[in-house]
Amino acid sequence: MQQTVQAIIDDLSGVIYGKQQQIKLALTCLFSQGHLLIEDLPGMGKTTLSHALAAVLGLTYQRVQFTSDLLPSDILGSSIFNANKHEFTFHKGPIFSQVVLADEINRAGPKTQSALLEAMEENQVTMDGDKHALPSPFFVIATQNPLYQSGTYPLPESQLDRFFMRISLGFPPKDAERKLILGQNNRDYDRLPVRINAAQLIEIQNKISTVTLSTPVVDYILALVWATRNNSQFANALSPRASIALGKAAQAWAFIDGRDFVTPDDVQVIFASVTEHRLGLNHDVSAQQLNQLLNDVNVPL
């Protein structure tokens, strides 16, 4: 299985150049059964990463472009009257896919943004009193533009907290960007090898919980969380949901590295991606603040 995971990373690295760390974080989020928020400038490869990820994993994929006039029914679906049967029939929206890209999510209004809440939290959609189960596995990748850009709406705190991780791709290295200028980018997703199927992905997700979280590592996570609750420089302290996410993400990162136990280093690697958007909410939290927090908390030996 570890060879397969490494092959997935290598395949994605052939599409998104110079971003192996971010690719591993995206897989960490998926293996942890969470949802991913990618914040970056337009044209940085956010859509490419999500499409390639779905292709390599053999999952169904839908992309929804969020705009100011997008309605919740455009995402979830709607009930349409069938004149022949004299009844309403529910027509599923793009949310009924295994990988859903919510592109530029903060360009839609709050009502449309909140339409994702139930789907992300409960893996189901309720329409006209009926519950409709979403496919399994179910993975939402949302991209958002920086809040200083025009036409953006800040995500509400309740929805921001439901994203398991937030990452940023950033500018590519010069040698990678040179390949892009020369047209050496592989965006023929249909030619990417399918490394695993949905059943195997679910098997991996189930294995993550078997990776050992020792008592010292759990205590370390608790110490980090409680340090945010006694620090006024953060807009919001980390909640128990964040504590759980830190544990799961560290387990998934250890699994990707081929280990069946978590070390404090695993917690440190995923810490910023899991906590930054929760600590600052819609305010910036600097890398220096997070590094200072990690330095202030003793690491178990």
TrEMBL record:
> What are the residue boundaries of the ATPase AAA-3 domain, all occurrences included?
35-165
Organism for this UniProt entry? Pseudoalteromonas prydzensis
Q: Which domain of life is it from?
A: Bacteria
Gene3D superfamilies for the chain = Magnesium chelatase subunit I, C-Terminal domain, P-loop containing nucleotide triphosphate hydrolases
Q: What keywords would UniProt list here?
A: ATP-binding, Nucleotide-binding
Start and end residues of each ChlI/MoxR AAA lid domain: 227-280
The cross-references to InterPro entries, in alphabetical order and at most eight, read: ATPase_AAA-3, CbbQ/NirQ/NorQ/GpvN, ChlI/MoxR_AAA_lid, P-loop_NTPase
This chain's protein is named MoxR family ATPase
Give the UniProt family note: Belongs to the MoxR family.
Q: Name one Pfam family in it.
A: AAA_3
